[in-house]
Structure formats: structure tokens, C-alpha cells
Specification:
The chain is built from 36 helices and 33 strands. Helix 6 runs antiparallel to helix 7. It is 46% helix and 18% strand. The structure holds phosphoenolpyruvate and magnesium ion. Phosphoenolpyruvate binds next to strand 27 and helix 31.
Length: 890
């Protein structure tokens, strides 16, 4: 039979699944010999069973009896004993921290009799005992029996009015006795029965209420936002009460072993004398800096510092701690590996390496690509200490300021930067979202429409700032009115909103990668930490990181960011601008001779493009993809042209060129262009197009070789679905390459994209004609799911995310089960045909941290991503390698 209850002495920190984070760490501290009040943990499994059955869990009562008896023995007191009561707290604690989302009941065991016993224990302190009792009825009423909290507040307020005082602390023991009477009436009115006097019944009901709080609305919402699985359940910790509110020699506090904001070592935390933990959370009184405890109670302070050192030495990481001092005796109530900012994560990992606490492999597991990406965004310069007017959910990182506008139309019409402020956004707001510098909403979380769309566009967004009231042309927050046209600044990382323009500062991490670090920042611990960890990541990575770039400037930047070559050079961008006319000539050519003229004019331009890129990537591979999009994308829009021609006709102005263009556009119009005449199909249908590009690539390579360079061109054919398509293109390409390259020593590889599901499923055949595969996971996702990649994310993904159909857009992070399976099949079957087959990925997923781990697992040779994502992918490639070899290198 399952064991549902663990004494603190029976657990350890690795049992978080079963005991929750709090229970596992209380057990760990107990076993380290630290002063933890006695207690036990009821497992998450008991919670899961309770929630599934909706009632009582068989066998749980008997186990609680047994552990409660042990707890009573170790404390030398019985639960709720009228003469000398043991009181307990009943606290939630899930595997993942969900701060404030679930319930806690303190002072369980108090009743009309034991309240006197508690007073005696506290040296005749009646006030303390009755205050504890009224707190129990209030918390128990709200949490266990759903009594509206406001009614208790009203009764408390009435007691203060009757006495003519303002603060709770001015109520004496008799007042509190009267208040307990009033609270009991409120309780009975709402529940139909009296406040339970049986301590054991109190305990059982409190435990069940904590179980149920796993499914409270706010907990459900939080889990959805943080992607915490819904079926984990919470553990429940039953802990002997210790009191920080027994006088000036008592108190409560929180501490961090290092600064969670910057990572600096030192003493960080807050202390509140003569108070309980809930007072700190409620912010009733101002806390003191932890360092002041040294003057108040040196013995406890020294002991706390020693414990903090023990915990860091044990967890090898920043710990955060909650403690209470009861009449000069220190008690540890909680510890966990502390949350920290991205900058602190890097700095602390490097410090711990320096201090010999962890090795470099372990350090890599302490940071993430998402954190590095955060450090690469520009940030607000907060040296002027601006005050935030409110705070929402940091939904899409970055720092933006601008004039407030309240509609999409105003955003589009505005001159200069604007912040679009809405209650929530919908697809009609898209033009405004594109035009705005940033988006602020008062409703919705990280998966709301605004958040999903903004992230997709890389636009700063703060969501769910629920303190603001959004009106038609103004919003209010805490009595402050912000009108259309007023300037605000929003921080998409922290969710903070500031009034006025906060200056934006470039990222020193980007400066470091760019090699133009401001010397004043050269010794920043953060920059040194990034350098250390990136160097180690590179040394561990199995995956290489290339970049998607189609200009020399992008190629150069990516190279500075550490790219190992180009994985995708999209040539279509080279057909725009002043070359449009040549492309139109090509498309509209009435005969082969004119088409060849247009191609001949394009060819030297293309050669120059490639030479520029090859030079920047000298010595590194450059994959050039032959033209991919449907050619009508280079022609004017059908609607506009039709109107233009009709208007001209009506005016009697004949324009032969426009009319010819219109008939061509009509001829080439497609219902589903993404599934139409594009990719390899173009090369097979339009004579000379691919040949021109192949010749330009080969000639550029030969030119660089002649300059003494080392070009490594790779020609990639897009949208292949059948080996015969590739064979046809390949035969012509090989002929041209042989002709151009001669004995220059230049080697040109020919390969294909795998972006059509059929290509993945016939990869064994396709590999006969390909020296490399590059997975085009954008199209592969589009075609595997049947999702139009240009439409669906903004249109309805917010609903899919809300329903949990997927946790993240499959265009953002690889869908391992579906699209990922196609990648696995193609990789295995391709390599079975051609063992040395080079494999890479050049869809957006190449720069997504989660997906990089997947590509490492599959055994690809490289990922390719936009220049800005290259450092993120390098870091994740190193982390993936460490993860797969297992890191226990402390
Ligand atoms: C892809 O489909 O993943 C790809 C890289 O090609 P494109 O995005 O240009 O269609
Ligand atoms: Mg594609």
C-alpha cells in the first residue's frame, strides 16, 4: 500500500515529486541537523487521490494518527491539550513553487479551552493567546469553510471603532475575547454550525482544504501561465507552531544567501521584530534590513549566518530562507533554491565555479538560453529611480516607451513611438500592434492574444496589469489618470509600467558579443560570467550553430556572434528593390530570348551578392538556397492592378504594359500559393532560373578562391518532395558547376531542404541525390499540421493555448511528437542511405532553446538561426550536450 505520510526525518530534497518543494527541503534541513520545528508531510499522491475521489483517502487517517502521536511525543505536548497545547500549522507545498496560490491554516489546535493553556505557555500573555485564536477562526473560516473574509474584516473594524482605536495592536485581551465571540457568530451564520472545538477535526478539515486549494481558480490560472502540469497535486506540511510574536526577543524574517537581483554575495533579507510570517507578507509594518538583526539578537544572527553557509555549501546554490525567532531561539521554517534574475543566474553560476562549489558543466545547467536572450534585449536605465505606476505580466521582453493610444487606428495614424493600451486585444488590433512600440493590456496572461501575437512579432508587451482601468481615451491606476498622448514606458521583462520616458540602455552582453564593449563595463561580473559560460558551452557542444543570413552585413554580425557558417541564405530577398524590374521582365518575357536576356542581366548581380557573403564567411560553409517563393510575389497585387487598369480604361488611357502585367498576374494567381508553384517546382518549370543561380554561386566561389580565400558553398534545393525532382535539378547543376569550377579546387555540395512531409517519409531515396539535408521546420510544421503559417498564430492560437491543445505554438518550439517524428525518420533513413549525410535545421526552431535540445538528441550536425539567436543556440547546444552525458560533476 502507498505510504501517504512522511516524518521530516524520513524525507530528503530529492523527493519533491512526492513531498513537494517545501516538504522535501524541510526534511533535508532536518537531516542536516538544523533547527526545524518537528512535523510531517502528507504526500502529493494523497492529494491526487483525494481530488480524484472527492472525499476521504483510505488509510490516510491511520497514518496521520501515527505521525501526530510521534510529533506530540517529540514536542512533549498534545494537540490542543487544554493545559499545555501543541499547535500546528497546515501548509501547502507543491513540487513547483506557486507563491501565495494555495492555502495555509495556522494555530490549528486552539479552542475555548486550549486558548488558556496557550496563554500560560506564553507566560500569562492573554492578549497573544486570544489574538492567535481569532486568527485561527478567521483563516479556518475563509480557507476551510468559504466564509467571506470581508465579514471578519468588518467585525474587526467594528471592534476598533467601538474602542476608538485605529490599529489592531491597540486591542487588548478583553477586546480580542469579544472579537472571538463575534467571529464565531460570523462562522456559525455562514456554515450553519459552530466553530469546531475538536482539535483533530480542525486538523483533518484543514488538510482537506489545502488539498482542495490545488484547484482554486487562481492556482489553476497560475499553473496555466507557468506551464505547471495540472495533475501534480500539492503536498501538505503539518508543522509544530513556533511564534515570532511573543515579544521583542521574537520575530520573523526572510534571507537570501546572495543577492537574487544581481548575484552579489552578501547578507540580503528582511526582519520584522515581534511578528508572524503573515505580517511580513501583508506588509503591515516596515521590515528592517536583515543586517540589523546583529544588533537586536547577535546569537540568533550568528547562528543564522552559519546556517546560511551550511545551506549554500549543501545545495551548492543560492538559497532563500524563511525563519522565526521565538524568544531568542532560531527556527528554520523553509528553504529552497532561490529564484533569481537572468543577470544573477549567470553571475552566481560563475561565482560558484570560482569558489569551487560546482564545476563548469554544472554551471551550464544553472543558466538558460531564455535568460541569455533576456540579457540581450535593451533595458531601461533605472539609475534615475523611476517609480512604477503599476505592474502586470511581463509577456514579451524588451523596453519600450511612447505616447499612449487606445485604438489600433490611432496607433497606425500616430507620428512617433506609441504604446497601445487596451483592456485586451483581438485580431482586429493587429495593425495597431504592428505600428506600436509596445502593448499594454489590463487583462489576460502570458497566453492571451496580445501576448502570443506580441511575442511572435518580437514586440514588447505587458499583459494583465489588472490595477488599471482602461477607458476610451484615458486609463486610471491608483487614482492617477493617464490620458491619450501622455508618455509611458513599459518593461516587457519585469512587467513594470512607468509614467514618462525612461531612457533605454543597450545590452552590455550584446556589446560583448559584438566586440565593442564599453571599457567601463569590461570588468562587469556579468560580462565575465557570460564569457566563461559561453566558452564552456562551445567546448561541450556537439551541434554547430550556423546562421540564417542573406546579406554580407548580417553574415558578418552572425560571425561575431559565433556562427559557424550560414545554414540558410534565402536568395529571394536579392530579387527585390531595384532588381524588381528585371524580375518582371523575366516573368513577363514573351519568348525564350527575352527571358534569357533578363536572366543574363540578373546573373552578375547575383554573383556579386554571393561573393560578398562568401567573403564574410571565408573558410566556413555557406548554404545558398535556390529561389523559393511563388514568382507572382514579385509582381503587383491583382486587386490593385485590376483597379488601375479599369480606371485607366474608363479614362480612355490605354496602357499596354499594365494590361500585359494584369493578364500575367491573373494567369499566375493561385488559391493556395504556399502549396503552389514555388521551390523546386519553379526551377523545373522556368527554364534557366536555377541554372543562372547555380552559375552565379559557382563563379562567386571561384572568384573568392582566386583571391586566396576558402569558399565552401552548398547549394540547397527547396520544397523537394520526390527524389526525381532533386535528380533533375542536380543533373543540370553538376554540369554547370563542372564547367565553372574547372581545376580551381572549389568544391560545391548539393543538398535539399526537408520541408514537405513526403520528403521526410522518402528520405532514404532522397539521400541518394543529396549530400546534405536541412530541415525547413517552418514549412514542415505548416504541412504536418495543415496550419497556414502566415495566418493561424494571430488568428486563433490563443484559444488553442487556453485550451491546452499545445503549451506553446508549434511554430515557436518543435512539436516533438508529430513534426519531430518526421525529423527523426528522415534523419535515420537519410543516414542509412548515406552514412556521412550532413544534417541541419534552418527553420525558426533552430534558435529555440527547447528545440535545440531536441535536435541534439536526434543527432543533427547543426542548427541555423537568425544572427541575434546565435549566442542563445550556442549556449543551448552546450547545455544539451551536458544534459545528455549527465552532469554530476560537483
Ligand atoms: C522553412 O520552411 O523552415 C524554411 C526555413 O524556409 P522558409 O521559412 O523560407 O519557407
Ligand atoms: Mg520553407
Amino acid at each position: 500500500m502507498a505510504k501517504f505520510v512522511y516524518d521530516f526525518a524520513e524525507g530528503n530534497k530529492d523527493l519533491k515529486d512526492l513531498l513537494g518543494g517545501k516538504g522535501a527541503n524541510l526534511a533535508e534541513m532536518t537531516n542536516l541537523g538544523l533547527p526545524v520545528p518537528a512535523g510531517f508531510t502528507i504526500t502529493t499522491e494523497a492529494c491526487q487521490r483525494y481530488l480524484a475521489a472527492g472525499t476521504h483517502v483510505d488509510g490516510l487517517d491511520a497514518e496521520i494518527d501515527e505521525h501526530l502521536a510521534a510529533l506530540e511525543r517529540s514536542m512533549g505536548r498534545r494537540l490542543g491539550d487544554p493545559a499545555d497545547p501543541l499547535l500546528v500549522s497546515v501548509r501547502s507545498g507543491a513540487k513547483f513553487s506557486m507563491p501565495g496560490m494555495m492555502e495555509t491554516v495556522l494555530n490549528v489546535g486552539l479552542n475555548d479551552e486550549s486558548v488558556d493553556g496557550l496563554s500560560r505557555q506564553a507566560g500569562g500573555n492573554d492578549r497573544f493567546a486570544w489574538d492567535s485564536y481569532r486568527r485561527l477562526i478567521q483563516m479556518f473560516g475563509k480557507t476551510v469553510c468559504d466564509v467571506p473574509g470581508s465579514e471578519f474584516e468588518e467585525a474587526l473594524h467594528a471592534a476598533k471603532v467601538a474602542k476608538g482605536v485605529k490599529d489592531d495592536v491597540q486591542l487588548d485581551a478583553d477586546d480580542l475575547k469579544g472579537l472571538v465571540g463575534a467571529y464565531k457568530k460570523v462562522f456559525a451564520k455562514h456554515t450553519g454550525h459552530d466553530f469546531p472545538q475538536d482539535p483533530r477535526q480542525q486538523l483533518d478539515l484543514a488538510i482537506e482544504a489545502v488539498f482542495r486549494s490545488w484547484n482554486a481558480d487562481r492556482a489553476v490560472l497560475y499553473r496555466r501561465q507557468e506551464r505547471i502540469p495540472a495533475d501534480l497535486g500539492t503536498a501538505v506540511n503539518v508543522v509544530a507552531m513556533v511564534f515570532g510574536n511573543l515579544g521583542p526577543d521574537s520575530g520573523t524574517g526572510v534571507a537570501f544567501t546572495r543577492d537574487p537581483a544581481t548575484g552579489e554575495s552578501g547578507i540580503y533579507g528582511d526582519y520584522l521584530q515581534n511578528a508572524q510570517g503573515e505580517d511580513v507578507v501583508a506588509g503591515i509594518r516596515n521590515t528592517l534590513p536583515l543586517a540589523d538583526l546583529e544588533k537586536i539578537d547577535k546569537k540568533s544572527y550568528d547562528e543564522l549566518l552559519a546556517i546560511m553557509a551550511t545551506l549554500e555549501g549543501h545545495y551548492h546554490d543560492l538559497c532563500d530562507i524563511e525563519f522565526t525567532i521565538e524568544r531568542g531561539k532560531l527556527w528554520m521554517l523553509q528553504t529552497r533554491v532561490g529564484k533569481r534574475t537572468a543577470a544573477a543566474a549567470f553571475t552566481i553560476a560563475a561565482q560558484l565555479v570560482d569558489e569551487g562549489m560546482i564545476d563548469l558543466d554544472e554551471a551550464l545547467t544553472r543558466v538558460s538560453g531564455a535568460q541569455l536572450a533576456q540579457l540581450m534585449f535593451p533595458r531601461f536605465d533605472l539609475s534615475g529611480d523611476p517609480t512604477a505606476i503599476t505592474r502586470g505580466v511581463g509577456a514579451s521582453p524588451g523596453a519600450a516607451y511612447g505616447k499612449v493610444v487606445f485604438s489600433s487606428a490611432e496607433a497606425v495614424a500616430a507620428d512617433g513611438p506609441v504604446i497601445l493600451v487596451r483592456r485586451e486585444t483581438n485580431p482586429d488590433d493587429l495593425p495597431g500592434m504592428i505600428a506600436a512600440q509596445g502593448i499594454l493590456t489590463s487583462r489576460g496572461g502570458k497566453t492571451s492574444h496580445a501576448a502570443v501575437v506580441a511575442r511572435g512579432m518580437g514586440k514588447t508587451c505587458v499583459c494583465g496589469a489588472d490595477e488599471i482601468e482602461v477607458g476610451r481615451d484615458q486609463f486610471t491606476v491608483g487614482g492617477q489618470v493617464v490620458r491619450a498622448g501622455d508618455v509611458i514606458s513599459i518593461d516587457g521583462t519585469t512587467g513594470r509600467v512607468y509614467l514618462g520616458e525612461v531612457p533605454v540602455r543597450p545590452s552590455e552582453v550584446v556589446q560583448y558579443f559584438e566586440g565593442d564593449l564599453d571599457p567601463a563595463l569590461a570588468n562587469e561580473p556579468l560580462v565575465a560570467a557570460v564569457h566563461l559560460l559561453m566558452t564552456h558551452a562551445d567546448s561541450r557542444a556537439a551541434l554547430k550553430v550556423r546562421t540564417n543570413a542573406d546579406t554580407g552585413a548580417d553574415a558578418a554580425r552572425a560571425r561575431r556572434f559565433g556562427a559557424h557558417g550560414i545554414g540558410l541564405c534565402r536568395t529571394e530577398h536579392m530579387f527585390l528593390g531595384d532588381r524588381r524590374e528585371l524580375v518582371e521582365r523575366l516573368i513577363l518575357a514573351p519568348n525564350p530570348a527575352e527571358r534569357n536576356d533578363a536572366l543574363a542581366a540578373l546573373q552578375p548581380l547575383q554573383r556579386a551578392d554571393f561573393l560578398d557573403i562568401f567573403r564574410e564567411m571565408n573558410g566556413l560553409p555557406v548554404t545558398v538556397r535556390l529561389i523559393d517563393p511563388p514568382l507572382h510575389e514579385f509582381l503587383p497585387s491583382l486587386e490593385e492592378l485590376a483597379v488601375q487598369v479599369a480606371v485607366a480604361k474608363a479614362r480612355g488611357e490605354e496602357n499596354e504594359r499594365d494590361e500585359r502585367m494584369l493578364s500575367a498576374v491573373r494567369r499566375m494567381h493561385e488559391q493556395n500559393p504556399m502549396l503552389g508553384l514555388r521551390g523546386v517546382r519553379l526551377g523545373l518549370v522556368i527554364p534557366g532560373l536555377f541554372a543562372m543561380q547555380v552559375r552565379a554561386i559557382a563563379e562567386a566561389a571561384v572568384a573568392l578562391a582566386a583571391e586566396g580565400g576558402h569558399p565552401k558553398p552548398e547549394i540547397m534545393v527547396p520544397l523537394v518532395g520526390a527524389v526525381q525532382e532533386l535528380e533533375t535539378v542536380r543533373a543540370e547543376a553538376e554540369r554547370i558547376i563542372a564547367e565553372v569550377v574547372g581545376d580551381s579546387g572549389v568544391e560545391v555540395l548539393i543538398g535539399t531542404m526537408i520541408e514537405v512531409p513526403r520528403a521526410a517519409l522518402t528520405a532514404g531515396q532522397i539521400a541518394e541525390a543529396a549530400e546534405f539535408f536541412s530541415f525547413g521546420t517552418n514549412d514542415l510544421t505548416q504541412m504536418a499540421w495543415g496550419f497556414s503559417r502566415d495566418d493561424v498564430e494571430g488568428a486563433f492560437f490563443w484559444r488553442y493555448l487556453e485550451l491546452g491543445i499545445f503549451g506553446i505554438s508549434p511554430f515557436e518550439s518543435i512539436d516533438r511528437d508529430g513534426v519531430g517524428r518526421l525529423v527523426r525518420i528522415a534523419a535515420a533513413e537519410g543516414r542509412a542511405t548515406r552514412p556521412g549525410l550532413k544534417l541541419g535545421v534552418c527553420g525558426e526552431h533552430g534558435g529555440d532553446p527547447e528545440s535545440v535540445h531536441f535536435f541534439h538528441e536526434v543527432g543533427l550536425d547543426y542548427v541555423s538561426c537568425s544572427p541575434f539567436r546565435v549566442p542563445v543556440a550556442r549556449l543551448e547546444a552546450g547545455r544539451a550536450a551536458v544534459e545528455s552525458t549527465g552532469s554530476d560533476h560537483r
